[in-house]
Structures are given as structure tokens and as C-alpha cells.
């Protein structure tokens, strides 16, 4: 039996509350060994993982991992928010009573780490000294070395982050379980990913993949953080965060925003200025996935990315779509690739959308580890990489990471944007001055469903604030909290909705996207400053063609501007009916939101 006291002493872990927590769960899980880790252990742990075959080399200073083939994505139906108060139940948060879920998880975890090492990961989801530091500290216990390596990349890891915090830490327990015998996706599914939000406890059983296992990320950084924010006056959102510096004026603007899946969030977060505007504007990266927002003592709205790394989707990441991401995962960065294709002879990696598919199949294995050269004709067109394959890298590897990304004070937020994926109704950008209408717009955010999905092509799958899978309390309370926090700011951010995905009748995208998306964001900041007026419409203010900086745009883009800067009133009127049904699900929605809905509806009817 491990001498736990000696292990904790040797690691310098002095917080008595953490020591008690570790001892308790070591007993429950039956772990044979306990090891406290820090970021300084990364090289040793990498070598141990390579020696054990848990990682494979992917060129100099890069690594490849493969998860169990049934364990490759977030499992929303198995992800639960549990509290002791049924009033926390929302439409989307899969609420269950804590008294039901905690015994179930303890039973599943009892003895489940027998013969394994329990790794103790003290972490911080914020720069040290942040005003939200006491909500950002956690200790993840895991029996999986790969999880440790990913957490070292995604958070700040070391005992120094939790020794002085008393009991102000999130208790996060991850037990992998017997992945091949968990009944994934069947009625006998044994997986549970539970955030006991009112006890600041996270219990995840039955996965070694992504947010199911990296508990500082989604479970703490979003679900638990969101609940803590509700109770303590700040916002936690699945938002990207970037900074734009106008080198001509010296002014800097910081914009955060939410985008449903496949709506371009990471590509926008890591964007660069288009070549034609590069001499004037410099874009800095803060984060691609999570933002914590609060009002400072000076009345300004501040934000920060609580993460220390990027857990990006590999598919379609290339020099055109996201050159910043490509540069952040080059050899020597310590990047970890998960579930991409791998060449066991050359140690290369590949995924769909990376570039030309290799023609010499020798040595290439697909994401399941099966030789691609052995595929039958029927399987020849199957993807080489899993569609949700990932790369993990630290923020310091991102070439244009903001110089102040570690500033505990955060950065002032000047704009909040929402971006869906719609082909014909949403213009390129529409600014929203009214707070209630901005929050209303976020609550009705969505991306178009496809006919293949449910036969409702053109109808949105609503994803409020892009938080549908991550909400930890009821939507009506969520809306009220947004109104309260943003309403408390003396200097209000401007809201906007963006859409890079309008298509013509021939199916062609009408806006080039990618780096060109900086142009409407620059316009938004000019609008906030009163430098441009735009055209007022029933659903917000849109730019005139003369106001957008179009230097360097091609003739086709210029020709399509009349369409992407137009409001289709008839299509908007159809949308308002869908919105009303969507919002009606949320009992007790603040009257300000309904008033905003009625104002927009009337303005459209009057138009």
C-alpha cells in the first residue's frame, strides 16, 4: 500500500483539504500508487508514455495518441448537471438530483483504478492573481497518463496553484473504466459525466477522451464555472477571444463571441489580418473556446481565457483556413495529435483537409490503427482521420498569442458577437445597441439544420450563446444573469451577429471568409466609436458598402456585397415564429427578453 503521506510531503502538497480529498478517493478507487504532478514532469511523463506505447512519436517533439474507437467525442446524453435544488433544472442541462447521481458514480468508481497509478493534477484555470482565481483552482484525480499530459498543455499545473487556497478548489475525479466493456451507446451504457455544481465536485467515469476526461476544460471551465459565475456575479461562456490593434491610431479592441459547432469559431479566434490590411491591423489571439467575463471596479467589462492551451479540431485545418494553428503545432512544440491518421514508418500525421492525401500508402494507419493499404474497395473512401480528431498545444506556441494573455487583470471587452451558420437570412454583420436585444440575439443563436439530419433544411438548431451542451442552470435564470452582469457595466460592449456563410442560388459562398472576416469586425469597432453610422434595419445596424474597408477584395466579393449586406424581411418574419416557440420552452424568461422579441417582430412587420 502506498505511503500516501510521504508521497504528498515529497511533492510539497501542503493544503490539508487537498490531502484529505486525495486520501479519500485513493481509498475509493483502489489505486495502487499515487503521484502528484506538475508541468515540470512533462518530459518524464512523455517518455514513460512513449515507453508504454500510450503515445507514438510524430516527428521531433510531437506525439500521436489514439483513443478507443467508441470513445472519440463528447457524449451529451451521458453528461449531467446535478444539484440538490430542482429549480436548477433547465431544458438543456440534463439535470438530475445530486442525491441520485453521487452514489451511482461512487459505486462505479469503487475499486475501478485497482493496480493503476492515481495521478494528482493540481491546476488553475486562470492566470495566478486573477480576481476569479478562487473559482479557477481545481485538483483532478485521474488514472490515465495521457490525460495528465493533455492537462499540462491545457491548464497551469503545479501544487503552487492550490496550496494557499484552503477548500476553494474544484474536486474533479476521473476514472477511465474498462473502455471495451462499458456498453457505449446502448441501454446498458455505464458512462456518466457528472458535475455536482452546488458542491463544486466533478465525477466522470467511462472515457479517456477530450472533455470527458480533461476535467479542467469543459466540466470545470464551462459547466462548473458557469454555475459559480451565476452565484458570484460573473459570466462563463463558450466564447473565443481576440484582440485587434489599429497600428495607425494605436487603439486596441478586444472582441469575444460564441459560435455553434462548425461555424468558424477557432478559425476566427486564430485569424490574421488579410494581406491588404496587414500594415494597419494586427490581430492577437487570446483563446478559441472559453471566456470568463466580469465587471471590474472601474465599471468596465473584462474577460480572460481560463485555458493555457488549444484543443483544436484537426479536420480542415490547413495553411488557408488557419495558418496560425498550423504554425502552433510544428515540430518541437510538444503538440499531441489524437485520432488522426498516422504513418508508423515515417511518423507523419494526416487528416482530411490538411492537404493532398498521401498516394504512397506504405505505413499509413487510419485513426483506428488499421492499415489503409489493406482496405477493401467498399472501405476505400472512409475517412483516414476521425472527424473529431484533435491537436493539443500550449498558448505560448501560438505565433500571435497576445503578449498579455497571462495578465491576471484580464482585458477590457469592447464587443460581444454571435455567429451562426445560415445560408440566406443573416447578413454579414449586424450591430445591436440594446443590451436586452443583444442577449435575446444570443439566446436565439443557432446553425441551420440539414435535410440529412432531420428534414428541416433552413431551420435553425438553436444553441443559446453556443452553450447548449454546457449549461449548468435554467435558461431563464441564465438570461436574467446576462442582463444583470452586462447591465452593471458602466461602459457597455457593443453586440453583433455575424455570418460568413451566405450562399448564392448556385450554392457558392458569397463572402470569402477566413482572414477577410476581420473587415466586418473593424467596422463594428468603428461603429462603436461613432466613426460610421451604418444602415438601421429591424434587426440591427448593417454596414454600408462605403463604410467597410474593402481594400484588396476581389471583384466577385465586391459584386456579392449587395446580397450579404441586405435584410430579407420575409425570411426574418418566418424566423420570428420559430424563435417564439424556442423561447417559450424557458419558463420564467425575463420580460425584457420578450419585449425585445416583440420589438423586433413589430419592426419587421412595419418594414
TrEMBL record:
It comes from the Bacteria. The active site is at 263. HAMAP family: PEPCK_GTP (MF_00452). Belongs to the phosphoenolpyruvate carboxykinase [GTP] family. Pathway: Carbohydrate biosynthesis; gluconeogenesis. This is Phosphoenolpyruvate carboxykinase [GTP]. It is found in: Cytoplasm. The keyword Lyase applies. Catalyzes the conversion of oxaloacetate (OAA) to phosphoenolpyruvate (PEP), the rate-limiting step in the metabolic pathway that produces glucose from lactate and other precursors derived from the citric acid cycle. GTP binds at residues 262-267, 390, 421, 514-517. Its cofactor is Mn(2+). The gene is pckG. It catalyses: oxaloacetate + GTP = phosphoenolpyruvate + GDP + CO2. Monomer. Residues 234-602 form the Phosphoenolpyruvate carboxykinase C-terminal P-loop domain. Substrate binds at residues 74, 209-211, 261, 388-390. Its EC number is 4.1.1.32.
Amino acid at each position: 500500500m502506498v505511503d500516501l503521506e510521504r508521497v504528498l510531503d515529497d511533492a510539497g502538497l501542503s493544503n490539508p483539504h487537498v490531502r484529505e480529498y486525495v486520501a479519500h478517493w485513493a481509498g475509493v478507487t483502489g489505486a495502487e500508487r499515487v503521484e502528484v504532478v506538475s508541468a515540470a514532469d512533462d518530459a518524464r511523463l512523455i517518455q514513460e508514455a512513449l515507453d508504454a506505447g500510450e503515445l507514438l512519436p510524430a516527428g521531433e517533439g510531437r506525439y500521436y495518441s489514439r483513443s478507443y474507437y467508441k470513445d472519440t467525442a463528447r457524449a451529451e446524453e451521458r453528461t449531467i448537471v446535478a444539484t440538490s435544488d430542482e429549480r436548477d433544472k433547465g431544458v438543456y442541462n440534463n439535470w438530475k438530483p445530486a442525491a441520485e447521481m453521487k452514489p451511482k458514480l461512487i459505486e462505479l468508481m469503487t475499486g475501478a483504478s485497482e493496480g493503476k497509478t492515481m495521478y494528482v493534477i493540481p491546476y488553475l484555470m486562470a492566470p495566478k492573481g486573477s480576481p476569479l482565481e478562487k473559482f479557477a483552482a481545481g485538483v483532478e484525480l485521474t488514472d490515465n497518463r495521457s490525460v495528465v499530459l493533455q492537462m499540462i498543455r491545457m491548464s497551469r499545473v503545479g501544487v503552487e496553484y492550490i496550496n494557499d487556497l484552503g477548500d476553494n478548489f474544484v474536486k474533479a475525479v476521473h476514472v477511465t473504466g474498462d473502455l471495451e466493456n462499458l456498453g457505449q451507446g446502448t441501454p446498458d451504457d455505464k458512462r456518466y459525466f457528472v458535475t455536482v455544481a452546488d458542491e463544486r465536485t466533478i465525477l466522470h467515469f467511462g472515457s479517456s477522451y477530450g472533455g470527458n476526461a480533461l476535467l479542467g476544460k469543459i466540466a470545470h471551465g464551462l459547466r462548473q464555472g458557469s454555475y459559480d459565475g451565476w452565484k458570484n456575479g460573473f459570466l462563463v461562456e463558450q466564447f473565443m477571444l481576440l484582440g485587434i490593434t489599429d497600428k495607425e491610431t494605436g487603439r486596441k479592441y478586444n472582441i469575444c463571441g460564441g459560435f455553434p459547432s462548425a461555424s468558424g469559431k477557432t478559425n476566427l479566434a486564430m485569424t490574421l489580418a488579410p494581406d491588404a490590411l496587414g500594415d494597419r491591423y494586427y490581430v492577437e489571439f487570446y483563446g478559441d473556446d472559453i471566456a470568463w467575463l466580469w465587471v471590474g471596479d472601474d465599471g468596465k467589462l473584462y474577460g480572460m481565457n481560463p485555458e493555457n492551451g488549444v484543443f483544436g479540431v484537426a479536420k480542415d485545418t490547413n495553411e488557408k483556413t488557419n495558418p496560425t494553428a498550423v504554425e502552433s503545432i510544428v515540430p518541437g512544440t510538444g503538440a499531441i495529435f489524437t485520432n488522426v491518421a498516422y504513418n508508423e514508418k515515417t511518423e507523419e500525421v494526416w487528416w482530411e483537409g490538411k492537404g493532398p492525401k498521401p498516394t504512397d500508402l506504405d505505413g499509413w494507419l487510419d485513426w483506428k490503427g488499421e492499415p489503409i493499404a489493406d482496405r477493401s474497395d467498399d472501405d476505400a473512401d472512409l475517412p483516414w482521420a476521425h472527424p473529431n480528431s484533435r491537436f493539443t498545444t500550449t498558448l505560448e506556441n501560438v505565433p500571435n498569442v497576445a503578449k498579455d494573455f497571462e495578465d491576471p487583470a484580464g482585458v477590457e471587452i469592447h464587443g460581444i458577437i454571435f455567429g451562426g451558420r445560415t445560408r440566406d437570412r443573416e447578413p454579414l454583420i449586424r450591430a445591436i445597441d440594446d443590451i436586452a436585444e443583444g442577449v435575446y440575439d444570443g439566446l436565439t443563436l443557432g446553425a441551420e439544420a440539414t435535410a440529412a439530419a432531420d428534414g428541416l433544411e433552413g431551420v435553425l438548431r438553436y444553441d443559446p450563446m453556443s452553450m447548449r451542451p454546457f449549461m449548468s442552470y435554467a435558461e431563464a435564470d441564465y438570461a436574467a444573469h446576462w442582463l444583470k452582469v452586462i447591465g452593471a457595466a458602466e461602459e457597455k460592449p457593443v453586440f453583433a451577429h455575424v455570418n460568413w456563410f451566405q450562399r448564392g442560388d448556385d450554392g457558392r459562398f458569397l463572402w470569402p471568409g477566413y482572414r477577410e472576416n476581420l473587415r466586418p469586425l473593424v467596422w463594428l469597432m468603428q461603429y462603436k466609436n461613432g466613426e460610421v453610422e451604418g444602415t438601421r434595419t429591424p434587426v440591427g445596424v448593417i454596414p454600408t458598402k462605403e463604410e467597410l474597408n474593402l481594400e484588396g477584395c476581389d471583384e466577385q466579393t465586391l459584386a456579392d456585397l449587395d446580397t450579404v449586406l441586405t435584410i430579407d424581411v420575409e425570411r426574418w418574419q418566418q424566423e420570428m415564429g420559430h424563435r417564439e416557440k424556442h423561447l417559450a420552452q424557458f419558463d420564467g424568461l425575463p420580460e425584457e427578453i420578450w419585449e425585445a422579441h416583440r420589438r423586433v417582430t413589430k419592426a419587421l412587420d412595419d418594414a
